[in-house]
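Take one protein record:
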Amino acid sequence: MNPIYFVRHGQTDWNAEGRLQGQRDIDLNAEGLRQAEAVAGRLARVSGLSGADLAGLDFAASPLIRTRRTMETLRAALNLDPADYRLDPRFKEISFGAWEGSTWAEIRRWDPAGALARDRDRWGYRPPGGTGESYAMLVERVEPAIAALTRPTVIVAHGGVARAILVIRGHLGLRDAPRIGIRQGSVLVSDQAGWRWA
């Protein structure tokens, strides 16, 4: 099991407002840029690498602007070419369909039945709107990308993708994965020893 160093994108204004972003393309705010720069030092410490050794890692990101900006900012802070990474659309965030752009409080007001159904089955529930995905669907999308990794990899993506990876790698079960918080500005390490925050 090659190590994965997972970084969730930095904060956006929608994060700060508690809005579901899903696959909406929302840029980082000033705090998000600060988090992206700060996480570079954590990545160097937890990997135990620097310079050319860090450059030898595989770097992959979701194609959304908030993940690309996070990746480019952290690579620049590590004195690596900001543009020298690959995009993988399989690492896009889970789609919340018609719920994107709303807060949970708003959803509970205008779609109480949907919110209740999701509360009862966080893993299998698919939000309305045609494009909505369940976590089970997200795992189907992410699993081939994880299976294809051939060396230690830095992945910059989203909270839902982190939860999918933890399930794919056997670190968490279907009940726990959708309930844990995925931190911004930290590195989630997944390796033979298990998973941990750095």
